[in-house]
Write a structure and sequence with these properties.
Length: 434
C-alpha cells in the first residue's frame, strides 16, 4: 500500500468502489490479496486502542468488523508525519445506512434498522462493552431475510468492563436516541425520507425496543409449577427475538425454582458442529439448534447439572432421541430422516403444550405426532428414488410415486432438486451422463 501518501490522495487503482458511510475520519476501501480491507486514518494511540478493543470483542463473539492491522510511523516523501491507519476487513454484503436509504427505503425498513441496532446494543452490553457513540452511522447492516443484522464498525469511543452499570447503559441509550433523531433530520433535509416522518418517535423506538429486549434477556423468573413448560416457553421467546440460549442456570428456592437464561451470540454452523461433537449426529443447522435446545432443557431439568456435558448428551441420546425415533412405526420410517422426525416431534409437543398451557411429556407428543401428523407427510425417500418423469403435480396423479406420497404437496422445484441430488450421489456412469 502507498503508505507515504495521505489516504485521501491514494490512487484509484488501489481502491475498491464500495459505499462509505459518514465518518469523522478519512476512510477508504482497498483491495489486498483477494480481499477487501477498510483503511481509516486516525491518531496513533487511538488506532492501537481500537484495534485492541475489536480483537477483544471478536474473541467474545460480538457482531463487529474484524481488525486486520495497525500501520504507524507513517511519513510522507518529505519526512513529515502522517496519521496512523487502522485496517479492518470489510464486512461482506454489508452497507452503511445511508446507502440503504439511497435505494428508496420505506418507513418500515427504517423501523427494522432501528430494531437491528437495538439488538446489537443489547448484545454489546451483555458482553460488558460500553459504546459511547451509538448511532446508525457507526454500524453496518446486512440484510437477513425480511430484517437486518447490525454490526459494530467504530469502537474508538468504547470501553470494556466486567459488567456495565445501569448508568452506563442508560447513557448509551440516550446517545443512541439523540444521534438517531439527528440522523433522521439529516435524511429529511436531503429528501431521502418523507418529511412527515416523526424523527422524535423513531428515536424513542430504540429505547423502547432496547428495554424490552434487555428485560426479556436478563430477568430472573421464579417458577412454582410446570417448570419444563415455562423453560421451553422462555427459550422460544428468546429464539424469536434472535438470541440463542447457550446456558440455563436453575437455582432452587424455598417456593420454587429460579430460572436464569443467558444468551450467547454464535456463528453460522455452531449448532450442527456442537451437536456433532456431543452426540455424533450429523444434521442441518436448524435441526441441530432445536435439538440442542431440548438437550439443554434436559440437562437443566432432568440430568445432574454437575455431570460432564458429553455424558449428559449421551444420556439424552439414549433416553430421549433414540426412543422417540424408534417409536415411529416401520411403515412410516421412509417418510422423513430421523433428525427431521425428531425436530417435528418437538414442534408438535410445543403446539400441544401451548394448547394445554402445561407441559406435555415427550412420549405423549410422539404418540400424537405419529397418529395425527406423520401419516400426512410426503415420503421423501420414495421421492428420491422415483424418476422425475413419473412424478406429477396437480389433480392428474397416478400411483407410480409409491404408497403414502402426497404429490399435491411437492413442488416441481423440490422434485427437481431431489432428483438432482440422487444423481449427484450416484456412482452409476449412465446416471451421471444423463
Amino acid at each position: 500500500m502507498p503508505w507515504s501518501i495521505p489516504l485521501e490522495n491514494w490512487p484509484k487503482d488501489t481502491l475498491a468502489a464500495l459505499p462509505r458511510g459518514i465518518s469523522r475520519h478519512v476512510v477508504r476501501f482497498v483491495r489486498y490479496e483477494g480481499r477487501v480491507l477498510a483503511v481509516k486514518e486516525t491518531v496513533d494511540a487511538m488506532a492501537a486502542r481500537e484495534f485492541s478493543l475489536l480483537r477483544d470483542l471478536q474473541r467474545r463473539g460480538a457482531p463487529c468488523v474484524v481488525p486486520f492491522a495497525v500501520v504507524g510511523g507513517r511519513t510522507d516523501e518529505d519526512g513529515e508525519p502522517l496519521p496512523a491507519a487502522l485496517v479492518t476487513e470489510h464486512l461482506q454484503f454489508s452497507l452503511p445506512y445511508r446507502a440503504l436509504f439511497s435505494q428508496g427505503v420505506r418507513e418500515d425498513t427504517l423501523t427494522r434498522l432501528i430494531d437491528a441496532l437495538a439488538v446489537l446494543l443489547v448484545r454489546l452490553h451483555l458482553l460488558g462493552f460500553y459504546w459511547g457513540d451509538v448511532s446508525l452511522s457507526n454500524a453496518l447492516f446486512r440484510r437477513d431475510a425480511s430484517s437486518f443484522s447490525a454490526y459494530l464498525v467504530d469502537a474508538e469511543t468504547g470501553d470494556i468492563h466486567p459488567v456495565l452499570t445501569d448508568g452506563q447503559r442508560a447513557y448509551d441509550i440516550e446517545l443512541a436516541r439523540t444521534n438517531i433523531i439527528g440522523e433522521i433530520f439529516d435524511l429529511q433535509a436531503g429528501e431521502w425520507v418523507d418529511s412527515e416522518l416523526d424523527a422524535i418517535d423513531v428515536g424513542e423506538r430504540i429505547a423502547e425496543r432496547y428495554e424490552k429486549l434487555w428485560e426479556t434477556l436478563t430477568q430472573t423468573e421464579v417458577i412454582r409449577d410446570h417448570i419444563r413448560y415455562h423453560v421451553e416457553e422462555r427459550i422460544h421467546e428468546l429464539n424469536k427475538l434472535g438470541f440463542d440460549v447457550a446456558e440455563i442456570d436453575m437455582t432452587s428456592t424455598e417456593d420454587g425454582n429460579e430460572v436464569r437464561i443467558r444468551p450467547k451470540v454464535v456463528d453460522a454452523g455452531f449448532h450442527s458442529r456442537r451437536l456433532m461433537r456431543l452426540t455424533g449426529l450429523d444434521v442441518q443447522e436448524n435441526q441441530a439448534r432445536r435439538m440442542l435446545n431440548d438437550l439443554d432443557e434436559y440437562r437443566a431439568t432432568v440430568a445432574n447439572k454437575d455431570d460432564d456435558e458429553v455424558m449428559v448428551a449421551h444420556e439424552w441420546l439414549v433416553d430421549v432421541f433414540e426412543p422417540a425415533v424408534r417409536a415411529v412405526p416401520r411403515e412410516f420410517r421412509r417418510k422423513l430422516e430421523p433428525a427431521q422426525v425428531f425436530h417435528e416431534i418437538l414442534d408438535h409437543r410445543w403446539f400441544l403444550t401451548e394448547e394445554r398451557e402445561s407441559y406435555v411429556p415427550l412420549t405423549e407428543a410422539v404418540a400424537s405426532y405419529v397418529k395425527n401428523v406423520l401419516p400426512t407427510r410426503p415420503d421423501e425417500q420414495a421421492v428420491l428414488g422415483t424418476p422425475i418423469s413419473e412424478l406429477t403435480t396437480g389433480d392428474d396423479v397416478d400411483d407410480t410415486t409409491g404408497p403414502g406420497v402426497d404429490t399435491h404437496a411437492i413442488s416441481l422445484s423440490e422434485i427437481a432438486n431431489a432428483h438432482l441430488q440422487r444423481i449427484l450421489e450416484s456412482e452409476d456412469d449412465d446416471d451421471l451422463q444423463r
